[in-house]
Structure formats: structure tokens, C-alpha cells
Amino acid sequence: MTATNGSIGAxxxxxxxxxxxxxxxxxxxxxxxxxxxxxxxxxxEELAKVCRRWLDGARARLDAALAERDADAGxxxxxxxxxxxxxxxxxxx
Length: 93
Fold this sequence. Notes:
The protein is mainly α. Helices cover 76% and strands 0% of the residues. The protein is built from 3 helices and no strands. The protein has helices at 13-29, 34-72, 78-92. α1 runs antiparallel to α2. The longest helix is centred in the middle third of the chain and has 39 residues, at 34-72. It is rod-shaped, with a radius of gyration of 19 Å. The two termini are 33 Å apart.
């Protein structure tokens, strides 16, 4: 693993994602002790949180940019954009 538990908040999305993929690969491969498996699981949870924070931040920036664009255009398109996103999300569940 590339980062220590103390520095997990300072890593970028791609690094966290790549390390998370490696953690999952190792867990799926098996052959680790219970203690090692638990440590990997905990690391994976931390990495998943880092990835979620990066993705949430990216979504917030995108939403802000779209809101600014829509405000500059007189407010047209905002409801249509949100409606399309809600339809896509509701299809997933």
C-alpha cells in the first residue's frame, strides 16, 4: 500500500482509487490471515471515503458551474437538467 493511515486525507482520487482496487484484489485472492484481512478491510473503507469525498466535491463544483451557467442564461435549462439526473438516478434503484 502506498500511503500510511495518517496521510490518507492528503492523497488524490486516482491514488486512492488505485490503492482501493489493489486492496479489493488482495481480499478477493484470499490467503491472508484474519488480522491482515481486517487491516485491509479497514484500509479499503478509508480509501472508499477518500474517493467519495473527491467525487462529492467534483459533483458540487459541477453543480455550481451549471447553476452559474443557467443563471447567466436567465435560468433556462436548470429544471430540465435536474429532471434528467433524477430520472437516471431513480432507474438505478
